[in-house]
Specification:
2 copies of one chain form a homodimer. The first copy, chain A, is α+β, with helices and mostly antiparallel strands and 205 residues long. In chain A, 17% of the residues lie in helices and 38% in strands. Chains A and B meet through strand 1, helix 1, helix 2, strand 2 and strand 5 of A and strand 1, helix 1, helix 2, strand 2 and strand 5 of B.
Chain lengths: 205, 205
């Protein structure tokens, strides 16, 4: 097997689009989620994010990475305005609609309408859930932290509402997200189904 | 389809282990990486992380979430001491070894030896790569940011070296990480292979 070795200078010399595609491949498989928001005038927004991560279980916290200068900026503006948002798993049925939310829509356009996804307002929660998603999470903003090196933001929220198909919740507490139809991403363009190999026991030394 | 709805009080009332397994399921599929480090006395360490995320392509930056109070603390201590570390994709062949690195080993034990993984020192890079991994990344620490809400850390590093099988690098710049054998995780126990459904074009409004 031939190996390619690139050092930091060689990476810097790559053509922009190629470097972006390459570096986005490096973290490994990615979570795919739709983040639903609304601004104070009632204009809703939904956008795909591949950077949602677990932050803690008690209190239940989730994080995601956002760039203030990108197409994602409406999401972060709305979260700053209202302090509420939803995270909704992308599944096999809606991955093409979800991908389309990454296009540059205008501030007064609804990405829900433009991409064929449906708002789902419930529990008197201010932000819209995505009806077509099987795993839906409503969060309240706790903290926005800035990465100095390149001005990206880590947005942290606490889970206030959680919805999922009852049949995917196992005795151990784990959700079978594969059974729920959730999918994985790679780089900025790859959409993958998964196949469980094994669930491992808690490791002991 | 029956739905389960939990609000924040019901989540708080769950038994600890069950809540941890549930909340860890919510971000979606996770990247699985081994982080290799060494302390100033030459004692190496390797640990599995499911929270590595893309931070930026120019400069090429990656991040991961760490808890100072957990089994992951040797990794963060070593990174603070030496400023260098490696990120190595977990693949189908080594996922059981990789999982075993999450056990609580003592400070003076090498998780490499204990779990059957092999250190790979090269390019005069201070931290060990994982020989069994097909995609290997050497990074220099740039920034450690603290999440106030629960004292987790976001660790940001810049890519200095990158190695991958030449045959998985496509014209567009994307690495075919599925072809490289990389796998995805779910919650704290699930290991999954993937199957590409589709690569999507850059979305336009």
């Amino acid at each position: 097997m031939m190996l390619t070795h690139l050092d930091n200078c060689q990476i810097g010399d790559l053509e922009d689009r190629k470097r972006i595609a390459l570096i986005n491949s490096l973290s490994g498989f990615k979570s795919l989620n739709l983040i639903g928001t609304v601004n104070k005038h009632g204009q809703n927004n939904v956008a795909i994010f591949n950077s949602v991560v677990h932050i803690g279980a008690n209190p239940p916290l989730m994080g995601f990475i956002s760039r203030p200068d990108s197409v994602e900026k409406h999401t972060i503006e709305n979260i700053r305005e209202t302090a509420y948002y939803t995270i909704n798993h992308v599944n096999k049925e809606i991955f093409e609609n979800a991908h389309q939310t990454s296009a540059r829509y205008k501030r007064d356009e609804s990405e829900f309408e433009a991409t064929g996804l449906t708002t789902d307002y419930k529990f008197f929660f201010p932000a819209p859930f995505v009806r077509e998603s099987n795993i839906q999470i409503g969060l309240e903003l706790k903290e926005i932290i800035s990465v100095k090196t390149n001005n990206t933001l880590l947005v942290i929220g606490e889970i206030k509402h959680l919805l999922f198909p009852s049949e995917v919740w196992g005795e151990s507490g784990v959700l079978d997200i594969e059974k729920a139809g959730s999918i994985a991403g790679s780089s900025l363009d790859g959409y993958h189904t998964t196949q469980l190999m094994k669930r491992m026991k808690y490791a002991k030394a």
